[in-house]
Amino acid sequence: MAKRAILYTRVSTDEQNNGYSPLDQKDKLYNYCEMNKIEVVGFYHDDESGKTFNRPEWKNIITFLKKNKNSVDYICFLKWDRFSRSAEKAYEELSILKKLGVEAVAIEQKLDLEIPEQKLMLAIYLTTPEIDNDRRSLNIFHGIRKGKKQGRWLGACPRGYKNTRNELNRPVITPEGGLQEKLVVRAFNDFSTGNYSIESLRLKLYKEGLKCNRNSFWMLLRNRVYIGQIFIPAYKDEPEEWIQGIHLPLISENVFYKVQDIIEGRKKHLPSSLKTIRDEFPLRGILICPQCGKYLTASCSKGKMGVRYPYYHCTNFCKERKKAEVVNNALEGMLETIKPSEGALKIFSKIVNDKITQNNQTNKIEGGKINTEISKLKKRIENAKNLMLDGEIEVSEFKTIRISTEDKIKQLSIELNRNQDGLINIKSNITEASMVISNLAKAYKQSNTSIKRQILSSIFSSGLIFEEKNYRTLKINEVIAKILRNTNACDDSPKKKHTRFGVLSLRVIPKGFEPLTHRLEICCSIQLSYETIDIQKKRQ
Questions:
Q1: What distance in Å separates the CA atoms of residue 462 and residue 513, rounded to the nearest whole number?
Q2: pLDDT by residue (tens digit) across 374-429?
Q3: How crowded is the C-beta side of 51, counted as CA atoms within 13 Å?
Q4: Which CATH fold would you assign to the domain 161-263?
Q5: In this structure, what is the dihedral angle of CA atoms 217, 221, 227, 233, given to the nearest 10 degrees?
């Protein structure tokens, strides 16, 4: 009775032009079966790596053999490296075939496994391609590592960049120069303001074209490739490190480390939770229910004609429900009553100017000390390098010194960036802050919903209560309260009465605030508000 065989060919992408074309293998296998009077019952081909047996057509062969036991005598292939390039996996698969009563035959490397000495040859045939694979993998690994040490990014480019090649035809990345680059830059700049949570900013940029999931966006904001650095992972006795890359950075180090500060929780004004911002509900999460004391939420109700009507309402079963239009209009009217006098604003400007001038002088002194320390550390690296070149210390010792010293330099550079960021352009900021404070209603109306919420959160740190068509507040920004409280004392007109807002603000003891917008940052110091009283008393 004639023997029956399944023919199997395999080729991976890099083997197509290396004497292993599928057609060549197939012809040789059919000729072999014809010469040895073997009946071919099936032919299977895989375009897959030989490192594992997780190949579609090989799985089909095993399935066929299990369903049709004793129907096949051989599985024929050209050489043992077509069967497998992993000795461990190959022995496992040969054991499965043996249980199914099928013999594996490499027609150009024939073996009789009934002869013990032939098993030694099998080991050589199976191990040789595995060694070849390992050598190629190691060459690729060291090639990639060498490229990274040269400052080149290897692999798929990060968002905002594109893969290209330099004048030596080596792979590098360059700024994309299109929409993705602009959105990545905006992601860092917007997040560094502290006005967004990660998710709210991601959703905003997603609508504009930055298709990025939560985890990818978080990793994007943490990736130092955007400040021109390349990560080299640890290997054997070499520690992991970041080195300066040859590609152009998209983000300044100052902005990047601001973002890291916020992510790591060192900025108090980071929004703690995501709030859905809708134009018709600027007071959601700011209005407090007068009945139960919880924050009101908001939604739209559908009318009889299909028209949707916006409402603020409570979720605590107290049936508190107010028309959003009425509440929003009343708020704008209330903000119109906040009218500090010119004299109060002059005192405010004087105090802020003195305070910031003092802070700037302190920051400049501290910045000078940090620069001196960075220079000393750089000199230390240079000295260690000279010692290595003179043979007084090992290369590994020099690397350890360099990496630890560069880490200290990086930390000091971050501190220096924060120090420089603390230097404020006094005149323009004071002028802008004064204009905002003196025209709060106008600034509120002209702002988008996000800025409106920040203005309200800055002034009314504990929320607002709307009851009987009027607003009342539990706490008010301390600086605003002091400016309004002293309006009459600074005004030229002794007969001018308190505004409704000014009287209201005196009912409670303010506890300070930290504003959320850059326009109000000028008046965010609690220390400043305490100094206000002393200076005002002296002037009076």
A1: 10
A2: 999 999 989 988 988 888 888 888 888 888 888 888 788 878 877 776 666 666 66
A3: 8
A4: Hect, E3 ligase catalytic domain fold (3.90.1750)
A5: -80
Q: Does the structural domain 4-136 have CATH classification 3.30.300.90?
A: no
Element (H, E) at 163: strand 161-165
CB atoms within 10 A of CB 399: 16
Residues 6+ apart with CB under 8 A from 31: none
Q: What CA–CA distance (Å, rounded) separates 538 from 443?
A: 32
Contact of 302 with 346, CB cutoff 8 Å: no
Confidence tier at 257 by pLDDT (50, 70, 90): confident
pLDDT recorded at residue 276: 61
pLDDT at position 59 is 94
CB 282 within 8 A of CB 298: no
- How long a stretch of residues is the chain? 540
531, burial (CB in 10 Å: exposed 0-12, middle 13-18, buried 19+): middle
In this structure, what token pair is assigned to residue 223? 């990736």
Strands (E), 53-107: 74-77, 103-106
Query: Whole-angstrom Cα distance, residue 282 to residue 324?
Result: 9
Express each pLDDT in 491-500 by its tens digit: 444 454 444 4
Is pLDDT larger for residue 135 or for residue 468?
Answer: 135
Token pair, residue 172, equals 């590098």
Quote the distance between the C-alpha of residue 343 and its chain's center.
47
Alpha helices in 100-115, H assignment, sequence order: none
CA 8 – CA 257 distance, rounded (Å)? 57
Residue 220 in tokens: 């994007």
DSSP string, 415-463: HHHHHHHT---HHHHHHHHHHHHHTHHHHHHHS-HHHHHHHHHHH-TT-
Q: Indicate the SS3 state at residue 101.
A: coil
* The model's pTM: 0.52
pLDDT digits (tens, 9 = 90+) for 321-380: 888 889 888 888 888 887 777 777 777 778 777 877 787 788 888 888 888 999 999 999
**Is residue 229 classed as helix, strand or coil in its secondary structure?**
strand
